[in-house]
Amino acid sequence: MVRKIAENVYFVGAIDWDRELFDELIPLPNGTTYNSYIIKGTEKIALIDTVEPRKEEEFMNNLKKLNIQKIDYVISNHAEQDHSGLIGKVVEKFGAKVVTNKKCADFLKTHIHIKDEDVITIEDGQEISLGDKTLKFIFTPWTHWPETMVTYLKEDKILFSCDLFGSHYATSEIEQVGSEKLLEMAKRYYAEIMMPFRVTMKQNIEKVEMLDIEKIAPSHGPVYKNPKLIIEAYKKWISDEVENEVVILYVSMHESTRKMVEYLVESLMDKGVKVKLHNIVNADIGEIAIDLVEASTVVIGTPMVLTGVHPIVAGAIYLVNALRPKTKYLAIVGSYGWGGKFIDEIKSMLSNVKAELLEPVTVKGLVDNEGYEKLEHLAKEIAERNLN
User: Fold this and answer.
1) Paired residues of 14 in beta bridges
2) What is the pLDDT of residues 30-52, one digit of tens each?
3) Which of 44, 116, 295, 383 has its CA 20 to 30 A from that of 233?
4) Exposure string (b/e) for 273-287, b if CB count within 10 Å is 16 or more?
5) Which residues lie closer than 8 Å to 56 by C-beta, 6 or more apart?
6) Any idea what DSSP says for residue 221?
7) 275 vs 80, 175, 236, 243, 257, CA distance in Å?
8) Are 353 and 327 contacting, i.e. CB atoms less than 8 angstroms apart?
9) Mean of the pLDDT values across residues 143-170?
10) How sure is the predictor about 265, in pLDDT bands with cuts at 50, 70 and 90?
């Protein structure tokens, strides 16, 4: 499929309607796209990124529809294979030179065996001319990987942002002004992919904001015809501001932890606190990640298994620690049969989360009145801190 997004600028990517899982980890409830763009200048032709290798036939057919016989430059904004996987084929078939930064070039040599002689290494802020069109390269490290960069087409004011501002969203609407659905999918993508780099992303967003942008063309999901929409959303997500929300992640084996969690939920609701509850036995980790983006407090609810945390809860804790949400408070509730050290175990697993740990509430066996009183105290403390 080919779509014109500006004069002599075309989407030549692929829509993967049926893909259900990314990296064998991330659920894709709305599929995804692998975006690639052709830019035809009066003197040179450039390709921005490629697509997932399993979409090679569709990608090559797109180039054929545009009668592309030669590509002078293939710009690699990011070395991950869903963007770079066909660069070797483009070099071989169209005689292109790979244009990228030094770190990305090193990754391309490692991951897809690109040769030194096929690479042109550029510096931050450098430009290349295609004749009547100019590409400017801006390094944006840790907008996923350490080598990531964006490319700005000056004359058309289009930012090719690679993973930054992307969304796993298969749709026939290649360009959008910005729907509620698109923002939902973009937030999910931010939560799953970008949130661990929230702090370092601030300076990259500042660099992008200095550009005069009319469209943002990411490497996954629709092209934004209203760049301000997604830039402002990102500024909110990466800020230090949190919402009056509590995310509770729990598992219960013999009802006690479930009763504790349900009591806590009701008490928090009575105190005006918004609660997002996940029984994580069969949870969508993307939904958990979304809820972590702006929550002020995270509560872990777990029973003891042998002498430690429940294994499924351990997986959720690993996820929280990896995503590094900006949550300000953590709490732990749970029950045990005869003893153990799951509190210390959980604390050691959350070393990346810079949040204050509130007094844990644990009970032996089925929760009793004393346990409910402790939960009431915890709910009161969470509400007071959230509202302050």
Assistant:
1) 34
2) 999 999 999 999 999 999 999 99
3) 383
4) bebbbbebeebebbe
5) 86, 89
6) S
7) 36, 35, 20, 11, 17
8) yes
9) 97
10) very high
